[in-house]
Amino acid sequence: MNVVSRGFHGRGRDGDVKLPPGQYLEHGFPVLQAGPTPPVNTATWTFTITTETGDSTRWDWKQFTALPAEDITTDIHCVTQWSKLGTNWRGVSLDTLLSDIETNAGYVMARSYGGYTTNVPLPDLRDGKAWIAYSYDGKPLHPEHGGPARLLVPHLYFWKSAKWVTGLDLMLRDKRGFWEQLGYNDYGDPWREQRYQGD
Question: Which segments cross the bilayer (predicted)?
């Protein structure tokens, strides 16, 4: 059984483009994931934010896509060493989603269809740093890239931008997600090359 999809390899670097250390410039959009693409229907899709006290706020697809959205142009960096520059997304800012939620949490666990999880410090999702994206290059986000919606945290390695996101659990203490339990760095800053625990 294939657990990790093909494409986990490196290549040479391109020209004089400013990239994080150890990265190469990618012109395509590789599909990398642990496990198969889950079938997610927008008719049953929900996104839930649960606080450390157990209070929850939930949106269905119609409610979610009616929220104020933003167009985002950003570079993305995968831990497998590729970087893609100037990608175009549309989504709802986490600032919008968290605006009416009271919390003392410092950390977040993102949860996805298929059981994937990843941990992120809550400050890394605020102040215009993160979105729940549902469009890429002007089209609905394709399932292989996390559609109908994925977390987008472009200043961290891309495994932190959980595909097929279903919600965020706000936590007082940090816990490791799927890849972090398998040895990936808890934070994942590409400019500091934080690929693995201890980096």
Answer: none
